User: Which sequence fits this backbone?
């Protein structure tokens, strides 16, 4: 099943095989900027211009919780590997990343360090590090809540490779950059589209889909 958010303030669920709409989830008071599935596939999180994050039970088609502590529109949401923690980021003027306990809906931590909009967040496969991207990339130690590193490269999307050794970022001009996490350096640039709209990494971390006009699929399997 696929999920999408839109300007009409709804979250829509789609049958990935038939392409038909299965359900419409109503509740946000502003356009929906981001959606993400929990690893177990039954819970969906959505972030909206109304400054809230909502958790949805997609089996029942009902809202589970509303998380209300952001000061600006929510730009990104991402579950950790076990689905027990959710990260969300705030828009212009906030620059904060919040971690939430999915079971209770309570705020667990706040990461501050970006001076501009945080466009995207992603948990590492080993659940030890959170990556965030703005006009720079930051890595956060989830055990201590402290910043581990800053990489001089921005973007609108960030994701981890399956082995946790590489970060992928996408720029507004369509450039897909690969970063060596240990060295904090760019190691490759992939090009194929002229602009960036959205991106998603497959659950196994081996395929990156990037939309910007045409949709292109990239094999980003870890190097052997």
Assistant:
């Amino acid at each position: 099943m696929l999920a999408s958010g839109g300007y009409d303030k709804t979250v829509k669920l789609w049958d990935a095989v038939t392409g038909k709409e299965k359900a419409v989830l109503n509740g946000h008071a502003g356009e929906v900027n981001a959606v993400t599935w929990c690893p177990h596939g039954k819970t969906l999180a959505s972030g909206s211009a109304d400054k809230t994050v909502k958790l949805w039970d997609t089996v029942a088609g009902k809202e589970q919780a509303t998380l209300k502590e952001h000061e600006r529109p929510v730009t990104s949401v991402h579950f950790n590997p076990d689905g027990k923690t959710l990260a969300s980021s705030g828009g212009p003027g906030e620059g904060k990343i919040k971690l939430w306990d999915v079971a209770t809906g309570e705020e667990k931590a706040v990461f501050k360090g970006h001076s501009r909009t945080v466009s995207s967040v992603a948990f590492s496969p080993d659940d030890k590090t959170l990556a965030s991207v703005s006009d720079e990339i930051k890595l956060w130690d989830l055990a201590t809540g402290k910043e581990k590193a800053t990489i001089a490269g921005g973007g609108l999307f960030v994701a981890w490779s399956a082995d946790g050794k590489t970060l992928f970022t996408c720029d507004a001009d369509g450039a897909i950059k690969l970063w060596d996490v240990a060295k904090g350096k760019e190691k490759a640039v992939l090009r194929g589209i002229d602009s960036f709209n959205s991106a998603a990494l497959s659950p196994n971390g081996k395929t990156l889909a990037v939309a910007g006009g045409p949709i292109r699929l990239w094999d980003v399997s870890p190097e052997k």
Summary: The CA atoms of residues 203 and 217 lie 14 Å apart. The radius of gyration is 16 Å. The chain has no helices and 22 strands.
